[in-house]
Structure formats: C-alpha cells, structure tokens
Amino acid sequence: MTKPQLTIYLAAPRGFCAGVDRAIKIVEMAIEKWGAPVYVRHEIVHNKFVVDSLRDKGAVFVEELHECPDDRPVIFSAHGVPKSVPAAAAKREMVFVDATCPLVSKVHIEAERHYENGLQMIMIGHAGHPETLGTMGQLPEGEVLLVETVDDVANVDVRDPSKLAFVTQTTLSVDDTIDIVAALRDRFPAIVGPHKEDICYATTNRQEAVKAIAPDCDALLVVGAPNSSNSKRLVEVAAKNGCNYAQLVQRATEIDWRALGEIRSLGITAGASAPEVLVNEVINAFRERFDVTVEMVETAKENVEFKVPRVLRVPA
Ligand code: SF4
Questions:
Q1: What residues sit in the active site (predicted)?
Q2: What is the pLDDT of residues 190-209, one digit of tens each?
Q3: Which domain holds residue 280?
C-alpha cells in the first residue's frame, strides 16, 4: 500500500540550549567526581528523558534541600534557586554546585542591583515556576511583585510608583511580554528595566522559527515536557500564528494520530530542554505511516556556549 505524502518542516533552532547543555554536563561531572549518588534539587532541566538518563547514572532528584543527606553533594537546577537554598546548604556544610543558567543568574544580578538602588521590583513570570521562585527569592519577601498578565498590571499594588524596576522570566512568550511591558511603562512611566525584556536568545529563536513555519503547517508538534515553560510557549506561538493544530508531545507514543487526521504538512520543533534523539523518534514514527520529505527551516544560527567549569569546586 502506498503511504500518503507528508512534508515535515523542521524548525531550526530547536532543542537543547547552552544553559541546558551546561547543566546536564555539570551533573555528569559531579557523578564522575564524587560517585553516586549525587542529589539534584528539582529536575535539572524539564525533560523526563534527560532526568531518567541521569538517574540511571546515579543522580537522585528531590524537590527540596531537606530531602538530601548532609554528606552527599547536591546540584541546583538550571532554573535557579532562591538565595535561602545555598545559604541552607552552606549552613549544613554540604557540598553543592549551582547549575543555574548564566542567563538566569544575569537576571538575579539585575534584580539585586535595582534593590540596592532602592527600587521595588516587578517580575513578569509564571507563578510557581522554579525560575520565578528563584528570581523572586533573590530579594527579601515583599520586594518582588509578580505579574503574569496585562490585567495583573492594572491591579498591582506598589510602594512608590516612582521607584520601580522590572525583570522577566527568561522563557516567556516574546509577543505576550511586549504587551505586559507596554502596560507597565504606561502605568508606571518611571519604571526602570532592560531595553526590552530578559527573555533569552534560545526562547526567542525557537519562537521565531515556529512563527516562520506555522502558517504552512496543517499541524505542528512541539517535542517537550508539560512543565517546560519554553515548550508550552512554542505551542501557543504556533496556534497564534496560523497553525490550526499544535500539540506538545514528550515522546512518539504521545502522538494523537486520530486528531492529526489527513495532514499533508507538519511542523516539528523542540523545547530548549528536549534532546534531538526525541525529535528523531517523532520523525521516524511519521516515516512509518507517511512518505516523508523533511525540509529544515532555519531562521537563526546559534553559537552560544556556556563554559562548564573544568573542575567542580565546592563553594568556600
Ligand atoms: S532556555 Fe534560556 S535561560 Fe533557560 S537554560 Fe536555556 S539559555 Fe538558559
């Protein structure tokens, strides 16, 4: 039986970013240096496949520091942690390594600088996301106010409208954030902030690549985890830019063949924490049912690399 034809538009850039790559390498190096088990506070990156592979090598994933024993090393995830976490680890004289993405650390530094200048902070982010908790936790309680939507901006209760600054989560929707920043600048003309926002290069590039292919796709799949902020944003971006069916899948087994129906074109991308092996798994699942032609659509070249420390050092 002849298979129906399908053109797959493969978005580029997609998948692993420099911060994810670095965080995974740090866990692997820690296991090599100190032997198993090495504890990791929170999923090192939001991807089950990655977490399971590291678990097989000897990593133990926990949500909070109190779940770790004093005498084993602990790694803090790429999303960043509130200041209280390394402080508690130091108090317990634990060995710990911070795998926070340097672009998240940059936002932490920004927030601290504004605080030292006497400004109250507004963070644009998603409530409960570990990066938001980590960034808000850089400053004392009450110093960072969270807004998630344009409506929140109208209701936020600030101490002094003339002494305000804002930062953002790094993995937000670029377009939604533009609107929220505009609402902040409109309500608080004196607010200080980054030129645009703090959304990282990887989030921006993956969203741009999806925008380029979405109008030509009958459907678009984002390979990524349901708790991955940047992956969820890619689904939204596809839907907002003309693709009628956009879905997040962790693995090929999650593809909803019935919902896809008789598609002739399919977009595929992957969130910043999804490895390429899973993208290939999804493409191969389509090859079994369709006569597939893959066209790569590259909208940006990435050459960002974050240094992985050659030797893991224990903080003094
Ligand atoms: S998505 Fe951006 S901020 Fe997050 S780890 Fe990757 S590079 Fe860093």
A1: 131
A2: 999 998 889 999 999 999 99
A3: 5-16+201-298
